[in-house]
Automatic annotation (TrEMBL):
Transmembrane portions of the chain: none
SUPFAM superfamilies listed in its UniProt record: TRAP-like
Domain of life: Bacteria
Name of the protein in its database record: AIM24 family protein
Any Pfam family the entry gives: AIM24
InterPro entries cross-referenced by the UniProt entry: AIM24, AIM24_sf, Trp_RNA-bd_attenuator-like_dom
Length: 226
């Protein structure tokens, strides 16, 4: 039996964050290298790791998130190996090098505690749907893990002059330096997007990437909010 299961055993640590299969994240924890992770995402750990749900730093920043799309976070600290997952979603690991990323809160799995982060409004969309769209902006040098409902596609918006259009409910993350604007479509309302017959798309242009999942979020991110 041990031979049959050998292929699923933990692999040697090669990085702070790495995939163990498509749907699990392995984090090498060490004293002084705290981690913020989605509350409830821990599936296993080795060593001595402590968890603090909704720590003060998270409460202070998340209080800005008025759209209700925020993901509750916990602070993880200690030494050992930590395994995280989110209901079988694919996990994508990103190593930021003095860079930044804007992530849909529902797709944020974990990130290094020393990174600068905060809740930010996506400019250019409020006029299309009530209060608009709010994301988590992360910047600095360190590791970030995001999830995708299925294998995502990463679109390089700098390859041509044409804009890249994305259904907001399939959007995972993008480079914050991209220009973003909304587009409203009435004729295609029954075919594109979600909602009550009126479709919204987000148009990206400039130099950067957009990460799109092959599944729409269960919530309509650009619904009109009262």
């Amino acid at each position: 039996m041990n031979q049959q299961l050998a292929g699923f055993a933990p692999t040697p640590v090669t990085a702070r964050m790495e995939n163990h299969g498509r749907t699990m994240l392995k984090v090498a924890m060490a004293t002084g290298q705290d981690l913020y992770a989605r509350t409830g995402s821990m599936v296993a750990y080795e060593g001595f790791i402590q968890y603090e749900p909704n720590p003060p730093a998270v409460r202070q920043i998340a209080s800005q998130w008025i759209s209700g799309e925020g993901a509750p976070l916990m602070k993880c600290a200690g030494d050992g190996l930590l395994y995280l997952a989110d209901y079988g979603a694919d996990v994508v690991v990103i190593n930021l090098d003095n860079d930044s990323l804007s992530v849909n809160g529902t797709n944020l799995l974990a990130f290094d505690g020393h990174l600068t982060w905060g809740v930010e409004r996506v400019k250019g969309l409020a006029k299309f749907a009530g209060q608009g769209l709010w994301n988590v902006g992360i910047q600095g040098t360190g590791w970030v893990a995001i999830t995708s409902r299925g294998t995502p596609i990463v679109v390089d918006c700098g390859r041509g002059e044409d804009e890249t259009f994305v259904d907001p409910d399939a959007l995972v993350a993008w480079s914050p330096n991209l220009k973003v604007k909304g587009k409203r479509s009435f004729k295609a309302g029954s075919l594109i997007g979600r909602g009550s017959g009126e479709a919204y798309q987000m148009a990206f242009s400039g130099q950067g990437i957009v990460v799109v999942q092959p599944s729409e979020d269960s919530t309509d991110r650009l619904r009109v909010r009262n």
